[in-house]
Design brief:
five-stranded mixed sheet, 10% strand
Length: 237
């Protein structure tokens, strides 16, 4: 009887061990699937005049994001990025580029075009904030353009001009240009962040992202120590 009890306990322990190993394997797989930024990618172009830029325009530190307005992960990062933009507005240049995941997010391109239309009236980032904060409201609508016009109206935009540009070939071209640039940079998911031209792992929350920026700012202000071998001997002059 005692031997049977021992064997049962051993069986339970083995089952738990197998379960733990399996769970670890699943977690590793999920982490791999979610990791969209370990590309080692480099941006294929400098910041362009057509880019949407906020913060200090001539900063030595640039945070560039490729994002999808319908992407849930992008929606989770949006408040973090907005908070960082407010905190570092006089220190860091922030750039937004579109990367709609066409196969998964059918309304992402239209949302991007709506943001472009708002940008024509100098309200790109304000409109982007609305799109992210109300993501669940418009994501499942078959045609969200009327909803997008409501958001434009709430910002005091000229809705007729907004609608015309949202539906124009120009807005489509702007989104497509960003997307193709992202493909060339090796992007395979959103959000993908670049720091001074190099892709970085998506920071795990506000504090982690803040540290990345603080480290970059510190590095940008380091003054190289004078090279003693280059010093001029003035003792005999």
């Amino acid at each position: 009887m005692d031997k049977q009890i021992v064997m049962k306990k051993v069986g339970v322990i083995v089952a738990w061990a197998v379960g733990i190993v399996a769970m670890l394997g699943i977690l590793v797989l999920v982490a791999t699937l979610q990791d969209n930024t370990k590309t080692g990618a480099q941006l294929t172009s400098e910041i362009l005049s057509t880019d949407h830029v906020a913060g200090k325009l001539d900063s030595k530190v640039t945070v560039l994001e490729y994002s999808d307005f319908q992407c849930p992960a992008c929606g989770l990062y949006a408040p973090i990025v907005e908070k960082l933009m407010a905190e570092y507005t006089d220190q860091v240049r922030f750039v937004y580029r579109h990367f709609p995941i066409y196969s998964k997010h059918p309304n992402a391109e239209t949302a991007a075009r709506a943001a472009e239309a708002a940008g024509q009236q100098n309200k790109f980032f304000e409109y982007a904030e609305i799109l992210f904060s109300k993501q669940q409201e418009w994501s499942d609508i078959q045609d969200p353009r009327n909803k997008f016009k409501e958001y434009a109206s709430s910002l005091g935009l000229k809705v007729d001009e907004f609608e015309k540009y949202m539906n124009s070939s120009e807005s489509k071209s702007a989104v497509t240009k960003d997307y193709q640039g992202g493909l060339k940079a090796g992007i395979n998911g959103t959000p993908t962040f670049f720091l001074n031209g190099s892709s970085i792992d998506s920071p795990n929350g506000y504090a982690a992202f803040k540290k990345v920026i603080d480290d970059a700012l510190a590095a940008s202000t380091v003054v190289a120590s004078p090279d003693p071998t280059q010093a001029t001997d003035t003792s005999s002059q």
